[in-house]
């Protein structure tokens, strides 16, 4: 019967595969090797989750340690899909790095595998909801960095079509993931609290953030090259995103938020 | 001609002025009448409004080349509407909102944004705009625009089902004693009401996590350590650990314990039993070693702590709930009976009712003699689910396809 005592036997080969995947990403020109290594790592890890599920007799979703298993699997899997589509090396590197971090916590702190997860968080939607957001934050942050680069180039009169295209794609990918996280959160809220949308503080700021990116997308449909206003919108959007992620805890009205469980 | 008056910018200017005027009208209505009463939108009024929306959009789209339809379905108006809703929800995000009508104090409705006239008018305007945008693409239908249809139709369905349907949604709390059948429920707006369905509670069960031990100051009752050092979670696999510099060893753990005559605890699965542990503590130097039983106590038996010195006690916190569930029989209005188990995150659907495991008697924990359920009536639920599904698929298209190049960009 597989339990947490077998975790190292699966985690170490998985980490080995992912590490080799990242190295081969920057050494080899052909992408089939990092993709295969990442996939191999994901399969080994998924095998452990499946065997643990079988051993426990229930889905491994009740403790913090079990939740981290799914983070690692989702981050690596989604990162692989997005890398296969978009071919940006940093997508796979970042996703595997994040997956690695969650696995490292489980490896270094085995005593917290049984750490309690309150009943409302024991939901099949918890991990996809948070994973989608983690990934979206990274893409949208990259989009803002790209926008700032464009603003600097504006001053030097050195616009780059490639940078414009990259910024747009990063916003589309990031917003797509953000909306997936938001919609999963709505379904989860409907299942747990009986209401899909409560204008809870975190939900409100997620809506504000999404509106910023939606506005950017719509303005860009009328522009061949982005105007300064449109690019500054991405800077504002990142500020709203940071408030959504962490800043809401400090806002007035935060005490009524259901998202205080994070604390 | 100034660049701001160029043909490209005129629709933006018109849209900005229109949206600003709309918001101003909303503020004036707010000042005159106070917050909007959502109950006015109850069925059949919301259905009439939906039909009116359809009529307006069909009417406008009869002449798709008209300036009015082009403006209503154009990007400038969409962008201005998104900008307006962004600004208005910033107010929602920064100003603490009133939790009831009695608490509202802002004359412009800033502390009750979702009930304010500007928000309602803007919401309605967005529905018309979004419907016209979709109609414009449907007139020149192409399967290649599947991502557009998924995103925009999904959003429209959601806005209609959540916005227009909100007033038809009712939520109640029902408390049912073990073995009893109940059909009375309560909410703040309607008070106690008899519902068309009944619930019989067969059994209630609760599983708790292993308890935590913590050091406290017996003089104040406050924790004696901060941060991570505050708790030591009882772990039957890893029976030793550290707690604020004290070495702790778990010698025995009883999940359902009752006190014995000799000062120890014995396992008995009876009502009123609670966790107890036998632990040994030793300080860093080894000069102080204490062994004893600790129990969190409950309504039936007292708490027991282990005294280490005049300023330190080791106590057990009440175990946190892992999951709680109710075995019930639902008696539907049509006479059907449904046997089910309700957990948190696993509601039950019965026609247009959703039934959620809401709470229990926290003081009695696993021995709770009643269970609380939340019953939500929402006839617009299928619309919400359909909207979420379409919007979800549209979002997947966004992230997999990115921005589609225009003909100009391709050239």
How do the strands and helices of this protein lay out in sequence?
The complex is a heterodimer of chains A (263) and B (411).
Chain A: H1 7-27, H2 32-56, H3 64-86, H4 89-108, H5 126-155, H6 161-193, H7 201-220, H8 228-245
Chain B: H1 10-33, H2 45-61, H3 67-72, H4 75-94, H5 117-139, H6 146-164, E1 170-177, E2 181-187, E3 191-208, E4 212-216, E5 231-233, E6 240-243, E7 246-259, E8 265-267, E9 274-282, E10 289-295, E11 306-309, E12 312-316, E13 321-331, E14 337-343, E15 348-350, E16 353-360, E17 370-377, H7 381-401, H8 407-410
Antiparallel strand pairs in B: 1-17, 2-3, 3-13, 4-5, 4-12, 6-7, 7-8, 7-9, 9-10, 11-12, 13-14, 15-16, 16-17
Helix pairs in contact in B: 1-4, 1-5, 2-5, 4-5, 5-6, 6-7
Question: Would you summarize the structure shown here?
Answer:
With 263 residues, chain A is an all-alpha fold. Chain A contains eight helices and no strands.
Shape field of chain B:
elongated
Helix tally of chain B equals 8
Largest interface by residue count? A-B, 60 and 59 residues
Largest β-sheet summary of chain B: 5 strands, antiparallel
The total count of strands of chain B amounts to: 17
Order of helices and strands of chain A: HHHHHHHH
CATH architecture verdict of the domain at 122-256 in chain A: Up-down Bundle
Name of the level-1 CATH class of the domain at 122-256 in chain A: Mainly Alpha
Summarize the main sheet of chain A: none
Q: Give the distance, in angstroms, between the N- and C-terminal Cα atoms of chain B.
A: 30 Å
Q: Which structural class best describes the helix and strand composition of chain B?
A: alpha+beta
* Percent in strands of chain B: 25-35%
Would you write up a description of this structure?
The complex is a heterodimer of chains A (263) and B (411). With 263 residues, chain A is mainly α. Chain A has a domain at 122-256: Up-down Bundle (Four Helix Bundle (Hemerythrin (Met), subunit A)), CATH 1.20.120. Chain A is 72% helix and 0% strand. Chain B is an alpha+beta fold. Chain B is built from eight helices and 17 strands. Chain B has helices at 10-33, 45-61, 67-72, 75-94, 117-139, 146-164, 381-401, 407-410; strands spanning 170-177, 181-187, 191-208, 212-216, 231-233, 240-243, 246-259, 265-267, 274-282, 289-295, 306-309, 312-316, 321-331, 337-343, 348-350, 353-360, 370-377. In chain B, the strands form four sheets. In chain B, strands 6, 7, 8, 9 and 10 form a five-stranded antiparallel sheet that branches. Chain B has a four-stranded antiparallel sheet with strand order 1-17-16-15, with no helix packed on it. Chain B starts with 9 loop residues before the first helix and ends with a helix. The model of chain B has no long low-confidence stretch (mean pLDDT 89). The chains are: A mainly alpha (263), B alpha+beta (411). Chains A and B meet through helix 3, helix 6 and helix 7 of A and helix 4, strand 13 and helix 7 of B.
